Amino acid sequence: MSLALDPAAQDLLFREARTANTFTDEPVTEEQVQAIYDLVKYGPTAFNQTPLRITLVRSAEARERLVQHMAEGNQAKTATAPLVAILSADNEFHEELPTLFPAFPQAKDLFFAERPAREGAAALNAALQAAYFIVGVRAAGLAAGPMTGFDFEGVRKEFLDDDHTPLMVVNIGKPGEDASYPRSPRLAYEQVVTTV
Q1: Cα-based distances in Å from 131 to 2, 25, 61, 128, 146
Q2: Rounded Cα–Cα distance for residues 55 and 49 (Å)
Q3: For residues 118 and 64, is the Cβ–Cβ distance under 8 A?
């Protein structure tokens, strides 16, 4: 059985896409970011949660503050990427649930009244949304360089607050020269999928 998605789109989103480590200096516009969000906001989450928060790092001053918290191997690419996004999980996402999940508005208090439950749900569902975001960046014809090599607590204190947990930093732009490593191997279907 073949996929419904056009092969060129499959290549753009998955087969030919790579994590970018270098970028051209072509800017990433606000309109592009809006288009990315307007596409990926439809990705499924539990109870239609929307815990992902995106902090766009555009100013030179903010970029300098962020680079200080990046692992050494991630500093140069974060300093030079056209746009950097800090993706975080909002642990108070449940406040929006009566609006986002009107079929069951009591889910806010029934399942998410306690902070530990919210943190677990926010981490999982924001990670799903982060994956959609990366695919959305690719759908816009851009490359993403997602990274977890940074001081999480430092980034939280510098850019977020106690209600937000950083997930990853994503460099975004048109890929530059020698932007990616060769494609690494993947596990075969038989190694991953089990039928019971």
Answers
A1: 23, 25, 28, 5, 10
A2: 18
A3: no
Q: What is the CB neighbour count within 10 angstroms for residue 167?
A: 22
Beta strands, E only, the chain:
52-57, 83-90, 143-147, 164-173
Q: Which of 162, 97, 165, 153 shows the shortest CA–CA distance to 126?
A: 165
**pTM score:** 0.95
Specify whether the CB–CB gap between 174 and 26 falls below 8 A: yes
Residue 116: which of 158, 54, 159, 165 has the closest Cα? 165
CA–CA distances in Å: residue 113 to residues 52, 93, 108: 19, 11, 7
Phi-psi region of 193 (alpha: psi -120 to 50; beta: other; left: phi over 0): beta
Pairing of strands 143-147, 83-90: unpaired
**Tokens encoding 58:** 């555009």
Q: How far is CA 178 from the centre of its chain?
A: 23
Residue-level pLDDT at 1: 59
- What is the side-by-side order of every strand in the sheet holding 83-90? 52-57, 83-90, 164-173, 143-147
Structure tokens at 50: 């929307």
Positions in the chain whose pLDDT score sits under 70: 1
Q: CA-CA distance, 116 to 25, in Å (whole number)? A: 42
